[in-house]
Amino acid sequence: MHKPLAAASAVVAVALGLAAVAVTIDRPAANASAARAAAAPVVDYANPTTLTSNLRVPWGLAYLPDGSALVAERDRARILWIRPGQATRVIGTVPGVVASGEGGLLGLAVSPKYTSDRQVYAYYTSSVDNRIVRFTLADLGAQTPVVTGLAKSSVHNGGRIAFGPDGMLYAGVGDAGDTATAQNPASNNGKILRVRPDGGVPADNPIAGSLVYSLGHRNVQGLAWDSAGRLYATEFGQNAFDEVNRIVPGGNYGWPVVEGVARNPAYRDPIVTWTTAEASPSGATIIGDTLFVAALRGNRLWAVPLDGAGGAGTPVAALTGRFGRLRTVEKAPDGSLWVTTSNRDGRGTPASSDDRVLRFAVTNPTPTPTATPTVTPSASACEISYRPTELPGLLLGNVTVTNRGPAVESWRLTWTFGGDQRINTAWAARISQSGRAVIARNDVWNGRVAAGATASFGFLASSTGANPRPTDFRFNGSPCTTR
After folding, report:
1. Are 55 and 356 in contact (CB under 8 A)?
2. pLDDT tens digits along 459-469
3. Mean pLDDT, to the nearest integer, of 434-444?
4. Based on the domain organization, do 260 and 186 belong to the same domain?
5. In whole angstroms, what is the distance from residue 453 CA to residue 442 CA?
6. What CATH code is carried by the domain that includes residue 191?
7. Nearest to 403 by CA among 454, 440, 351, 338
8. pLDDT for residue 34
9. What is the mean pLDDT of residues 82-91?
10. Cα–Cα distance measured from residue 162 to residue 145, given in angstroms and rounded to the nearest whole number
11. 388 and 352 in a common domain
């Protein structure tokens, strides 16, 4: 049984839980369902190719612009260069790595600007901490620290890093065995971090001046984005439930107060749970509308259908028991699926050729063309759904705008408050305010809104009096109706 946290931590948990509002660009349901069905990938599980073998716990896997791959060996701290059809080459050993327990050379990520900056990022365990550094393949020792001071342990080091579609570096950081850190916003452990490539704090992170993107995590080792830019993460449970979570800015995922589904508005519930014997989920990747999850203790690969709205259907298991423990799964630039085994990590039963990197061919059926959505003519350019929640001295506002005009590539929504509301923070929009007049602009990733589609954002405002509904909503300058 988990003990409740201190009252101060509970207040932080509730506040951040309220700020966890997802933002999606939705399309008509019928067309979206047809597209998802057509886009389901077909994986040739029966005929894998062994790309390389005899490794020691291949952990990180990242692709270079030419389609070749870099693989990190956790225990030997080596970086390998894999080119299908050619001999695997050892790039070198990363200095400073101290491999012990679940620690060592863990995640790898290649800079989105690699062709010009040649930077590779690594998450590793040193003698004093877990850290993220960057370097070039020409000199693994000339390291520039990106994030340092992450608590390390023999367990729960996290370690997955990946660049998101926004160009920021995301990192899954474990609680390092100290469960209280997961609910402590001042600690970077038990979190998903969002970091500028130079190590700085993005200006639009949920907590000003903090790298914390979401909290309440035990041990995240899988990060993946769908085509709409939604982030999903896999997480190891303790004794009962492993999880897949849909990650939103500022979201609180409950650990250690809860494991699995909380049904508590202060915490976000997982979209998938498994027993720990079925999963121990590590790496994750998305092809089409399917999330693939590599399972360690479960000795299988899970295929999780995504519903296009941030939720999931019933997972289907593949490769059960065939290759033992599976650590990492990634979509390759050519569309194939690469999977690493983890049978030499001290918990598996290695075959003579373990550990291996396997390649599975994937066929993506051509989606059936769908008709352009019909937009019913309207006297207004948009329709607004405004859902306020009043708290003592606070106003939580959730706004959804439906575009009744032609598609737009960026948007600006303006309105006028009817009281003394003053917006303190916002998510999924950039908001400025002058007196009672407010301007909300799209974020860098959610500017496009198709005809008939919707976009959502939220804000938290201070308020000392009544909270009458805002008036004069305008979408890119054109008046809107409200409901």
Report:
1. yes
2. 888 888 888 88
3. 86
4. yes
5. 14
6. 2.120.10.30
7. 454
8. 43
9. 96
10. 16
11. no
Lowest-pLDDT range, 148-162, 253-267, 313-327, 458-472? 458-472
- Number of domains composing the chain: 2
Mean pLDDT within 75-97: 97
Note whether 2 and 260 are within 8 A (CB).
no
The reply to whether 216 and 294 lie within a common domain is yes
Q: Average pLDDT of 194-214?
A: 96
Sign of CA dihedral 390, 392, 394, 396: negative
Residue 7: count other Cβ atoms within 10 Å of its Cβ.
Answer: 8
Mean pLDDT of 51-68: 97
CB atoms within 10 A of CB 74: 27
Distance separating alpha carbons of residues 169 and 186, to the nearest angstrom: 19
- Distance, in Å, from the CA atom of 261 to the CA atom of 283, rounded to the nearest integer, reads 21
Domain that holds residue 420: 382-482
pLDDT at residue 12 in the model: 33
Q: Are residues 353 and 445 in the same domain?
A: no
341 and 396 belong to one structural domain: no
**Same-domain check for residues 201 and 298:** yes
Residue 478: how many other CB atoms lie within 10 Å: 12
Q: Are residues 343 and 470 in the same domain?
A: no
Examine the domain organization and report whether 356 and 411 are in the same domain: no
Q: What is the mean pLDDT of residues 227-240?
A: 95
Alpha helices in 404-463 (DSSP H): none
Backbone angles phi, psi at 235, to 5 degrees: -145, 135
pTM of the model: 0.72
Other Cβ atoms less than 10 A from the Cβ of 377: the count is 6
φ/ψ of 30, rounded to 5, equals -65, -45
Considering only residues 5 and 356, tell me which one the structure prediction assigns the higher pLDDT.
356
